[in-house]
Amino acid sequence: MSRTGRLREEVRVYLEENDTANTVEIFDHLNGRFRWGATMNQVGNILAKD
After folding, report:
1. Do the beta carbons of residue 14 and residue 26 sit within 8 Å?
2. What is the residue range of 13's domain?
3. Which residue ranges in the chain fall short of pLDDT 50?
4. Least packed by Cβ within 10 Å: which of 5, 10, 27, 46?
5. Which one, of 5, 11, 2, 7, lies nearest residue 38 by Cα?
6. 3-state SS record for 3-44
């Protein structure tokens, strides 16, 4: 699975658990969850495309 695939899946799970979240909350969660983290551009692209 690609890096963005793992990020996309984690965003999906996070939103299922929390119902709503803004971009900064998702960004902070991803950077706390994964060692390599994510850039704000990656998070924006994930949210825009899915």
Report:
1. yes
2. 3-49
3. none
4. 5
5. 7
6. HHHHHHHHHHHHHHHHCCCCHHHHHHHHHHHCCCCCCHHHHH
Q: What are the structure tokens assigned to 18, written together?
A: 């929390």
Quote the number of domains for the chain. Answer: 1
Distance CA 50, CA 7 (A): 12
* pTM check: above 0.90: no
Q: Rounded CA gap, 31 and 35, in Å?
A: 7
Work out the number of other CB atoms within 10 angstroms of the CB of residue 43: 20
Nearest Cα to 28, choosing from 20, 37, 36, 19?
A: 37
